[in-house]
Amino acid sequence: MLFSSIVFLFWFLPIVLGVYYVLLRKTNSRNAFLFFSSLFFYAWGEPKFVLVMLLSIFANWQFGLAIDRVKVSPRRRLLLTLAVSFNLLIIFIFKYLTFFAGIFFQLSGVALPIPEITLPIGISFFTFQAISYIVDVYRGKGVVQKSWLHVGLYIAFFPQLIAGPIVRYQTIADQINHRVEHLDDFSEGVTRFIAGLGKKVLIANQMALVADAAFSSAAPGASFAWLGALAYTFQIYYDFSGYSDMAIGLGKMFGFHFDENFNDPYRSNSVSEFWRRWHISLGSWFRDYVYIPLGGSRSKLYRNLFVVWALTGLWHGASWNFVIWGLYYFVLIAFEKALGHALDRIPDFIRVGVTFLAVLLGWVLFRAPTLTAAAHYFGQMFSFSNGDTLSFMRYFTEKKLFFMVAVLLSIPSVRKYRTRFAPLYVAELLLIFALAVSFLLKNTYNPFIYFNF
């Protein structure tokens, strides 16, 4: 079920809010209701994979109890290793088995059929949250949940279930049992949700039309290829940050406070800074659960960076494009680390421009279906061919207003402007909501990019 769908906006969410606040009073009953509502939310599009999620919930509940019960360090480490291995095995089977089986068959020359396995939506997100629960309990950064239902609520809570942000257990461990719902939080949640809905439906979906046309063109030419790359750069930002805004807003409606997932990434003056501002929950997860345990910057810095960025690329998908995309950022960040403070001598506006260009080129590799397709698209971008000039003129003319809005809203000083006249601000939100609903009723392009991961 999509947040940006009529079913969710006018049926699922109102019913869940109504039952939660009108019929239920105790936190335990509200938790149970949210858990089963979340299972229904997930089963709407992936009914058979609810069993996979339930297996993950029950297994991690038992692992958490066992780790909390055992006080001997070697046995605790063994249980932790088994728990993490179990979660990685789930994600490997569904997401990577086909990819690595293909590599094995190519290298060995064995002609066996490669299994076709359907990828459960959001498996990378809820599996990483399960690992967070186990590790945080092991480290004593969150009290173990005695109830399987509460573990289930943490892993399956519908606002962040299928496209993040990745919520760390230590962040909401106390909120599961002791949160307090406030009218101010609910109001802020509604505001944040509408803003995210506007980002997704009114900007990202429009950018997607341009990007899809350019990347599917056999010979877009330089102008249309650059326009398509720019469109995808804005599409993925407003798509994913819009979803994160909606998830954070929904969480606040139910008394949960999630950490921010984006912080003006396109104003970054280095690639390292970009990744501190983009998909913050994923970056902090790899930092705390992989990079620092490996030694961080204290020992074997470049090895640790290589491991983190290879895994970051692979996390996004079982494809060489994603692996190379991750290693592309390893090279850029390693280069920045090597230069150190020498970069500070370059004016900020140049650094911001170069960083944005590097990110845009990275998104081409990320968006292209294969490495061959990526190489072809890069060739079009840096050619002197006119290519599909008619498509360039058509999409530039039709979508120039959307491009202008996308650029302006990525500038912090513009985006953070808020009128002090409350009725006008309410009218602005109502207009955004009405426009978004009208676009949805027209059945325009609407999938979320990060559902694939």
What would you note in describing this structure?
With 453 residues, this protein is an all-alpha fold. It folds into two domains: 6-179, no CATH class; 185-452, no CATH class. Helices cover 72% and strands 0% of the residues. It is built from 18 helices and no strands. It has helices at 6-23, 27-43, 50-69, 73-108, 123-139, 148-156, 169-178, 183-216, 221-253, 271-277, 280-294, 301-316, 320-339, 348-367, 371-381, 389-409, 412-415, 422-441. The chain is globular and about 65 Å long. The mean pLDDT is 89.
Describe how the helices and strands are arranged.
Blueprint: H1 6-23, H2 27-43, H3 50-69, H4 73-108, H5 123-139, H6 148-156, H7 169-178, H8 183-216, H9 221-253, H10 271-277, H11 280-294, H12 301-316, H13 320-339, H14 348-367, H15 371-381, H16 389-409, H17 412-415, H18 422-441
Task: Provide a concise account of the structure shown.
The chain is mainly α and 453 residues long.
Features:
453 residues; mainly alpha; 2 domains; 18 helices; globular
- Main sheet? none
How many individual domains? 2
Determine the number of helices (DSSP H or I, runs of at least 4 residues): 18
Low-confidence stretches: none
Quick check: average pLDDT? Answer: 89
Instruction: Give the helices and strands as they follow along the chain.
Output: HHHHHHHHHHHHHHHHHH
The structural class is mainly alpha
Shape by Cα distribution? globular
Helicity range of the residues? over 70%
How far is it from the N-terminal to the C-terminal residue, by CA? 16 Å
Rg (C-alpha, Å)? 23 Å
State which percent range the strand residues make up: under 5%
